[in-house]
Give the backbone structure.
Amino acid sequence: MIASAVTQHYIYKLGVCGDHPNGDFPNGDPCGPAPINVWVQTIPYLLIAFSEIFTSITGLEYAFTKAPKNMRSVVTSIFLFMNAISYAVGQAFVGLSEDPLLVWNYTTISILAALGGVGFWTTHRKLDKQEDAMNALPESSFKGRGQNHAGQAA
């Protein structure tokens, strides 16, 4: 989102209408586009796409390698619920998604993401040392209440 904020800042800075590029001149003529190549916006899209891919793969990998077999769906659902909360926070900022507030919108989301990243790192930084021990967790034999060890109702 920092790349989006910087791109939008330059759109405002280089455009003839400043921070209202969708506006009109006093004589009623529409403002022209900023002299920035449209391909510049691929940078934020690529960075966002890669971050989504890395996050999803890491979360699903942890759900399937670190959780007991009978709790994988619960761990996956908690991971996806956290994603839903982050998307809801993003939706809370939709009101800022108009000129001239776009730079503020992207900057605010960037700051929130950085704070979340720092919080995540401080909370989980010691897990890397425990990686081998966590991979060697024994399989659970618990199948649920009222079921025998074959997984059938008693």
